[in-house]
Amino acid sequence: MSSPPTDPSNDVCVIIPAYNEAGMIGEVLAELTQFPYRVVVVDDGSTDQTSAAALHYPVTVLTHLTNLGQGAALATGIRYALSIPETRFIATFDADGQHHIDDLRKAVACCRESGFDVVLGSRFLQGGAAPDMPPIRRLALKLAVRLTRMSTGLNLTDTHNGLRVFSRKAASRLQITQDGMAHASEILAQVAAQKMSFCEVPITITYTAYSKLKGQPVSNFVNILWDLWIGKIR
Amino acid sequence: MNNHFGQTLLIFALALFILYVVRLRTILTDRLIFIIGGILGVALVIDPNTSTWVANRLGIGRGTDLVFYLFIVAGLFFAVTMISENNRLQRRQTRIIQQMALDNPKQGPVEVGSEPAPSSDLTPHH
Fold it and tell me: A93 lies in which domain range?
């Protein structure tokens, strides 16, 4: 558990996309709500008690009637966050317990102090870690880093990390059209195309049996590429 | 007219098809292509020799091969229009579901353990 809250105000809105996370969301929110963040859980059409579990905590819950995908859930959360005039920073955080609050605070502080448009978490940066990461996942993520470098020119070390912080200005310029997991590549493409300033902060990803079960399989890589290309057909 | 001319023409037609699919499609042009394709199909059934005559001119050889190539292109065209329509409906569905979620935010208790706030106080400032 982290030290007591020290963040200056609740101008930070943390978006947590959640699909069938009733088993873990309570634990994540119990810790997160000790900090003066405005927390928005986007229940992406869960068939379990995710919303009910989240509503035990001082958070806002937005519910998709049916499962759209993580990209759509983030887009909903960001739109809600931008509708709150006090919001200056918008963070995205996973619901499955993989992320650590200290890393979130570090990323928020970095965005606040540095003035960067976007701060991205990286498990591969010096100081970051991802113990117990399955080797095949490490390989797939490294390949994704290469592909992103080739397609966007962004020199990043981790391209598919759910912990990010956007300034209000940056978030309002994002147009997430990819409903599924391809949103991660789409966001980076827009960061590059719109020449947003960005930096990476080292973070730790904790792979648990739960998160490995809940996380996307490596084979989803093919689906992401498919969505990125086929999704362009208008 | 030699084979190279026919093959170059076919490759050019394929490039044009890709350009059309990626950049130039509209609902009207899609429908016109369907209508023209249908008429062309009927014409080829009525006069099979036409396909052989065109195939010879293009250096393909047999009319059957030309019809086969056209069938592949027509199949791809059909797939693209269906994917496009599916994407459009999906985007529309996403917008509706997102707006419904935004219109009905639910609020947990102000502090852990207390009662949830009434949801009517939560509509964001659009």
Answer: 12-229
The answer, for A218 touching chain B at a CB cutoff of 8 Å, is no
Within a domain: A1: no
Q: Which residues of chain A have a CB within 8 Å of the CB of B22?
A: 232-233
CATH number of residue A176's parent domain: 3.90.550.10
Query: Per the CB < 8 Å rule, is B84 touching A233?
Result: yes
DSSP run (H or E) holding A18:
strand A12-18
Q: Each residue of A147-205: pLDDT tens digit? A: 888 888 888 999 889 999 999 999 999 999 999 888 998 999 999 999 999 999 999 99
Report yes or no: A101 and A31 within 8 Å, Cβ to Cβ. yes
Q: What is the pLDDT of residues A58-83, one digit of tens each?
A: 999 999 999 999 999 999 999 999 99
Q: Is residue A219 part of a domain?
A: yes
Q: Across the interface, which of B100, B105, B126 has its CB nearest the CB of A60?
A: B105
**8 Å CB contact of B110 and A72:** no
Q: Which of A57, A64, A72 sits opposite B112 (nearest CB)?
A: A57
Q: Closest-CA residue in chain B for A53?
A: B108
Residue B115 pLDDT exceeds 70: no
How many domains does chain A contain in total?
1
What are the b/e assignments for A19-52, b being 16+ CB within 10 Å?
A: bbbbbbbbebbeebbebebbbbbbbbbbeebbbe
Choose among B13, B32, B39, B30: nearest CA to B82.
B30
